[in-house]
Specification:
Blueprint (H helix, E strand, L loop, with lengths): L18 H25 L5 H24 L12 H25 L1 H6 L15 H21 L6 H24 L3 H22 L4 H5 L2 H21 L4
Helix pairs in contact: 1-6, 2-7, 3-5, 3-6, 6-7, 7-9
Length: 243
């Protein structure tokens, strides 16, 4: 009589759950919560200057902190469990829907500023027409979701670390709309988008080690936000900080 065999990780039903997706969603919600608290502190008249300065400089240090956290992890990664068909489908669908939902929410929150405040600003002559922005962002959100799906379905690599960066950069993407349009502050928007630039570069560098196509899918996004950084900088130079 043969001894009873223990089920392997790939055969265990619970190992097929979408833990990386849930973890990324958790980090994203935490980032949005932190962004909301930051806006409240910045808008409160009793917040002293030192605290304001600390809040504004902390996002710039975030990529450095993530690199330090990544460098401390020396333990070998556990074998990846076998992925079910449902998991592989939702790994692409959920990140894409999340990007589109946050983009729609940002558009809804900033609609008043776009019609009342943004047209009154002095802008660069290279500013594209307003109709172009939702079209470009729709395409970029789709590429971002596919890139996340490529990482989540990768057979090997530190997917959790890369998806953490993906979730945080998406939170900063949403935060920029709040800082620039809702708070109507080119200065805060500049701080937010420079932080977003660094996080997107960090994601590209880390995702390239797992799947190169996932990194390349983020390149149009990086080009667009670098262009948006220039537009934000010109608005800041021509109109002042707005706070």
């Amino acid at each position: 009589m043969k001894p009873e065999q223990q089920p392997t990780a790939a055969e265990t039903p619970s190992a097929k759950g979408p833990q990386p997706i849930l973890r990324s969603a958790f980090y994203l919600l935490a980032g949005i919560g932190a962004a909301t608290a930051t806006l409240c502190l910045l808008g409160h008249k009793h917040t002293n200057r030192a605290l304001r300065t600390g809040i504004r400089t902390l996002p710039v240090l975030l990529p450095v902190l993530l690199e330090y956290r990544h460098g401390r992890k020396s333990a070998p990664a556990a074998p990846k469990p076998q992925q079910s068909t449902a998991y592989r489908i939702w790994a692409y669908v959920l990140p894409t829907l999340l990007c589109l939902a946050l983009g729609a929410l940002a558009g809804w929150l900033q609609r008043g500023s776009i019609t009342e405040w943004y047209p009154t600003l002095l802008k660069s002559v290279a500013t594209p027409p307003n109709i172009l922005f939702p079209i470009v962002w729709g395409v970029l959100y789709l590429l971002m979701g596919i890139s996340a799906g490529r990482i989540l379905t990768a057979p090997a690599g530190n997917r959790g670390e890369v998806m953490t960066i993906w979730g945080i950069q998406l939170g900063f993407n949403f935060l920029w709309s709040i800082l620039f349009f809702v708070a109507r502050s080119p200065l805060l928007g500049m701080i937010g988008i420079v932080s977003l630039d660094a996080l997107v570069m960090l994601y590209i560098a880390h995702s390239y080690r797992i799947r190169r196509d996932a990194a390349w899918l983020f390149v149009p996004y990086l080009v667009w936000i670098l262009y948006a950084t220039y537009l934000n900088a010109r608005i800041l130079a021509l109109n002042g900080p707005g706070i």
